[in-house]
Amino acid sequence: MRSMFAAVAVLGMGMASAAFGQAPAQPSGPAAEALAAYNRVKPNILKAADKMPAESYSYKPTPDIRTFARVVNHVTEAQEHTCSALNGTTWDPKTLPAETADKAAIVAALKASFDECDKAFGSLADGQLMEVLALGPVKRSKIGLAWGTVSHDNEQYATLALYLRLKGLVPPSSEK
């Protein structure tokens, strides 16, 4: 009888903690950390691309600097290149829209690159992170590719945020 009461008490405590909003334990480890970092930068890039008006996609702060559209396309290229490798697929660079394409085409390609990366980051497992992949003449570990993507995305988001500020717009990460 005592063991039944103990089981009911444990079950009740578990239900109570769920009812009071305690979050379930999140996955941990290097793969989960890379996924979490990727998931933090992704919405900022997508919102920045959406926030810039279509007529400002050709904007560049000085004549010798890339246009906003080119920065977005650069994110798309880099993500497709690395995340396709992580997924064991290939990407055709000919599918990248020109930087003079309309905003809708550029954003659609960016979203497609995030779809590819969602698959790549979502399938990473701690036990495979040291596996080495060849990207042309370069060989990189899966964890190196994943963190390289996160690092690059953060760097490019900073550029997109600066372009937004120069156009008088508040970057997504500063809206809160």
Helix-strand blueprint:
Elements: H1 2-19, H2 30-51, H3 68-87, H4 103-123, E1 132-135, E2 138-141, H5 142-166
Antiparallel strand pairs: 1-2
Describe the structure.
The protein has 176 residues and is mainly alpha-helical. It contains five helices and two strands; from the N terminus they run ααααββα. The protein has one domain: Four Helix Bundle (Hemerythrin (Met), subunit A) (Up-down Bundle). The protein is 60% helix and 5% strand. A two-stranded antiparallel ribbon has the order 1-2. A hairpin with a 2-residue loop joins β1 (132-135) and β2. The N and C termini lie far apart (54 Å). 27% of the residues are buried. Residues 1-20 have low confidence and may be disordered.
Summarize the structure.
The protein has helices at 2-19, 30-51, 68-87, 103-123, 142-166, and strands spanning 132-135, 138-141. With 176 residues, it is mainly alpha-helical.
Category from helices, strands and their pairing: mainly alpha
* Anisotropy-based shape: globular
Largest sheet: 2 strands, antiparallel
Q: Care to count the β-strands? A: 2
- Output the number of helix runs: 5
Q: Distance between the terminal alpha carbons, to the nearest Å?
A: 54 Å
Low-confidence segments, ≥5 residues, pLDDT <50? 1-20
Instruction: Estimate what percentage of residues fall within beta strands.
Output: under 5%
Instruction: Please state the average pLDDT score.
Output: 88
Q: What is the CATH T-level topology?
A: Four Helix Bundle (Hemerythrin (Met), subunit A)
- Order of neighbouring strands in the sheet with most strands: 1-2
Any guess at the CATH architecture?
Answer: Up-down Bundle
Radius of gyration: 21 Å
Helix and strand sequence: HHHHEEH
Q: What count of domains describes the coordinates? A: 1
